Amino acid sequence: MQNQTQIFGIRAIIEAVNSGETIDKVFLQKGLRGELYTELEQVLRKNSINTSYVPPEKLNRLTKKNHQGAVAQISPIDFYDLETLVLNVIESGKTPLFLLLDQLSDVRNFGAIIRTAECTGVDGIIIQKKGGAPVNGDTIKTSAGAVFKIPICKVDHIKDAVFYMQASGIKVIAATEKTDNLLYSVSFKQPCAIIMGSEGRGINPSTLKVVDEKAKLPLLGDIESLNVSVACGAFLYEAVRQRQ
């Protein structure tokens, strides 16, 4: 009951989750009731799987099969464990460079950022389990296949990753307009992690409070912000420039 990117049907999704399948997101039909449906909701909550409640028309667009009100998107990649990845990078002897994405919602921005991260030697990308863009076909296409070449980790909250980076001796730098610091005044030569915020609201305010440094790009025109993937590229290439 599965193609390369989907599982459909309530029982099939329960079994897939319980067997350890890497599921990126589940779409559930609004207003459904029943014992099996309730069991599915419990399994999804227990495993912290990103869930959206949608009208039946959305599910019918996702698949022509008998979905029973539930369609799961399977991730084409396996996610890395954050602690293991950070430890491996530190032990390799190189100067770590990580990228934290705080709930980006657009898969094309996500894919473009993954591509740039791979080109700039980023050691790993950390995303939140819920609220962000999925790793799907559009992500793969926009990343030009880079999604298979760079480690990606999922955490419960981006703030958890911030604290772990700091405890590991890695400076956390937030890309935000809520500062007077320009990007070019910040040092990227030591171990560091850059946080990029979501398209709409930027970095979560509670996360901004715990970062080590904040930096912004100079904007010389009338528009007050850059596309997040473009801004991310500017930050990563400044890190590359300083480390050359």
Automatic annotation (TrEMBL):
Gene Ontology annotations for the cellular component aspect, listed alphabetically: cytosol
InterPro entries the record matches: Alpha/beta_knot_MTases, Ribosomal_eL30-like_sf, rRNA_MeTrfase_TrmH, SpoU_MeTrfase, SpoU_subst-bd, tRNA_m1G_MTases_N
GO BP annotation list: methylation; RNA processing
Listed CDD domains: SpoU-like_RlmB
Coiled-coil portions: none
Domain of life according to the entry: Bacteria
Domain RNA 2-O ribose methyltransferase substrate binding as annotated: residue spans: 6-80
Record GO terms (molecular function): RNA binding; RNA methyltransferase activity
Keywords: Methyltransferase, Transferase
Family annotation (NCBIfam families): rRNA_methyl_3
PANTHER family named in the record: 23S RRNA (GUANOSINE-2'-O-)-METHYLTRANSFERASE RLMB
Listed name of the protein: 23S rRNA (Guanosine(2251)-2'-O)-methyltransferase RlmB
Taxonomic placement: Bacteria, Pseudomonadati, Bacteroidota, Flavobacteriia, Flavobacteriales
